[in-house]
Amino acid sequence: MKKKFILEPAREIPVTREADVVVCGGGPSGFIAAIAAARNGAKTLLLEHYGFLGGMATAGLVGPISKFNFRGERIISGIPEEFVGEMAGRGGAIIDLQSGNVPYDPETYKYTALNMVEAAGVDILLHAHVVGCVTDPCQAGTLTHVLIENKSGRQAIAAKYFIDCTGTGDLVSRSQLPWKMRNKYDGELQPMSLYFRLGGVDTTAFDLLMAQDGVKYTNVALKRLLMEEVDAGRLTNFGGPWAVHGSTLRDGQLSVNATRFRGNAADGDDVSTAERSLREDVMRIVKIFTEKVPAMRDAYLIDTATQVGIRETRGIIGLYTMTLEDILQSKGFDDTVAYGGHPVDIHRAANSKQDVSFLQEPYAIPYRSLVPKGATNLLVAGGCLSATREAFASIRVQAQCMALGQAAGTAAALCARAGIGVAELNGKSLREELKGQGAIV
Ligand SMILES: Cc1cc2nc3c(=O)[nH]c(=O)nc-3n(C[C@H](O)[C@H](O)[C@H](O)COP(=O)(O)OP(=O)(O)OC[C@H]3O[C@@H](n4cnc5c(N)ncnc54)[C@H](O)[C@@H]3O)c2cc1C
Predict the structure, then answer these.
(1) What is the pLDDT of residues 342-401, one digit of tens each?
(2) Which of 142, 398, 400, 403 is 20 to 30 Å from 54 at the Cα level?
(3) CA of 382 to the centre of ligand 1 (A)
(4) Are residues 180 and 265 in the same domain?
């Protein structure tokens, strides 16, 4: 059908809230950014699309939380470590694995994240979808308001600083600041995957604590079964499978990452088709597993994730763009704000392959990769930082996104305190500030 357009009539929109810092998206990067901004004295508002926090960790059930350690040494501390420690205190996380991967219980995650955000004094608006922004007509790169839609209708929220933690760059893409889809680097986006969890499994038959350093892990027996399904034309594609303690840590339960859909998760049609198609695949996979795997004979589907997992979409074009070279030949930066240690981990969209390059040492991530070129009052953290697709294939995991959230939240609060633009903030001072707050930088 030929694309048709209409003109939306101009209308008055109420300005319903004001803040020093507005964080858009309450996933791993966003809720940590909000805590950091508030703890550093900024009047902070957190906007989240769902009725709970955690993003892909809770809505997507993706786990375990990777990666706090490199070869047994802590590389992420600060608020992210405090968070997983609080979850562990509630019996909802395993935090002492040598790998630094943290299996967790999603309900404990939702509750702990909300609890810590509230305790920091952050104002939270749940069920708020960020749909746009208003830019100062006299200053390109300066946002004045973010636009949201919720049950009350369309509203504007005024703020001095904004942080895009939507994972998909929803705010940046509605601004005039530069970004590009990650497939513009080499033509492919990593696939979407719908997680599911199984109960009633004889988990003594599984290696539940995957991803030891330097070991490429998938369940070989389950993989063979799914390959037979693909060869027989009953399943289009699959990944892994990884059937582990990730978003579950209880005996008898597994979280399973096995589905794959090729598409662009920033495209409304694609993501809708992915949801429908992958739900079908989950049912087929559960059937095969329960019929053919003795340890799963009595297994049942506990749940599927609230939404498909989105690995990559948009990234900003920042003051610094992380490259594969930065990951593999770790160099320090004056403005280092976090370290990464996850392998360069690329899931192929067209088949069941996974390309993994393990690292020799942890690498540094600079503040400048969170600053869009030309921005005066907008930062990003998590899924839309400035990185080539290969570099992002390592940085993209949760603990790193959380650490970047702490950096962005702290940076926005420091900028608000000093009344300066985000590109003017001295990276070395930010680093010292983060160090003082327990972050490893
Ligand atoms: C299939 C899959 C498997 C993965 N496996 C692992 C793993 O094993 N370990 C690991 O550590 N990481 C894993 N990851 C990566 C992990 O998901 C990311 O590191 C992490 O979720 C990124 O955090 P984020 O805060 O940037 O974004 P997200 O987690 O995507 O959070 C974004 C938040 O913003 C909200 N939001 C989005 N758009 C809007 C909007 N317009 N308005 C308001 N709110 C909005 C969302 O609801 C969400 O809460 C996996 C990812 C996928 C997809």
Answers:
(1) 999 999 998 989 888 999 999 999 999 999 999 999 999 999 999 999 999 999 999 999
(2) 142
(3) 8
(4) no
- Residue bearing tokens 């690292």: 359
Query: Is the same domain home to 327 and 257?
Result: no
**CB of 36 closer than 8 Å to CB of 415:** no
Please check whether residue 117 lies inside any domain of the structure.
yes
Closest atom, ligand 1, to C-alpha of 131? 41
- Identify the domain containing residue 81 by its residue range: 15-55+70-186+312-436
Residue located nearest, by CA, to atom 21 of ligand 1: 56
In the reported structure, the alpha carbon of residue 192 is separated from the centroid of ligand 1 by a whole-number distance in angstroms of: 11
Residue partners of 255: CB distance under 8 A and separation at least 6: 61, 63, 195, 196, 197, 243, 244, 245, 246, 247, 248
Domain with residue 157: its CATH number is 3.50.50.60
- CA distance linking residue 396 with residue 346, whole number of Å: 11
The pLDDT value given to residue 212: 66
To the question of pTM greater than 0.70 for the whole model, the response is yes
> Across residues 250-276, what is the average pLDDT?
96
Same domain, yes or no, for 411 and 320? yes
Reported as a single tens digit per residue, the pLDDT across 39-84 is 999 999 999 999 999 999 999 999 999 999 999 999 999 999 999 9
